[in-house]
Amino acid sequence: MWGSADGGTPEVTLETSMGPFTVEMYYKHTPKTCRNFVELSRRGYYDNVKFHRIIKDFIVQGGDPTGTGRGSESIYGPKFEDEIRPELKHTGAGIISMANAGPNTNGSQFFITLAPCQSLDALWTATSTGNKCEV
């Protein structure tokens, strides 16, 4: 679901087997990345896709419809470039970032932080913050 209750910052609600959670999109900072995530969500690309990688106290990763960690395609084609912004940090649980196989290889996969992960700050495009989620 895409939108904002008050017409402010765009939000997406993700429905999971553990319940829904809402994330605030960093659209002004990472417009191409946010558009990719929102459009894939709107198209149902993520429907019934499992989190294929779970690392306790670090991240959960999903967005691969094959469930193997190898599938990933963006709305722009197979891959698109990073939008890493130094002001966006992985400061706690609930930050969503694009998962990729190296620089400029973003597709559909994403991860959600389960704790502060400052080591990821310069490597991954932060897309949103789950300021309304219980992770």
From TrEMBL:
InterPro entries the UniProt entry points to: Cyclophilin-like_dom_sf, Cyclophilin-type_PPIase, Cyclophilin-type_PPIase_CS, Cyclophilin-type_PPIase_dom, Cyclophilin_A-like
**Function recorded in the entry:** PPIases accelerate the folding of proteins. It catalyzes the cis-trans isomerization of proline imidic peptide bonds in oligopeptides.
Name the GO cellular-component terms.
Answer: catalytic step 2 spliceosome
GO BP term (any one): protein folding
Kindly state which keywords UniProt assigns to this record, in alphabetical order.
Chaperone, Isomerase, Rotamase
User: What protein name is recorded for this chain?
Assistant: Peptidyl-prolyl cis-trans isomerase
Please report the organism this UniProt entry assigns to the protein: Musa troglodytarum (fe'i banana)
**PANTHER family associated with the record:** PEPTIDYL-PROLYL CIS-TRANS ISOMERASE-RELATED, PEPTIDYLPROLYL ISOMERASE DOMAIN AND WD REPEAT-CONTAINING PROTEIN 1
Query: GO: which molecular function terms?
Result: peptidyl-prolyl cis-trans isomerase activity
The answer to keyword Chloroplast applying to this record is no
Family label: Belongs to the cyclophilin-type PPIase family.
One Pfam annotation reads Pro_isomerase
The record ties this protein, via PROSITE patterns, to: CSA_PPIASE_1, CSA_PPIASE_2
**Family matches, as Gene3D superfamilies:** Cyclophilin-like
UniProt-listed Enzyme Commission number(s): 5.2.1.8
Catalyzed reaction equations: [protein]-peptidylproline (omega=180) = [protein]-peptidylproline (omega=0)
Tell me the ranges covered by the PPIase cyclophilin-type domain, including all copies.
15-135
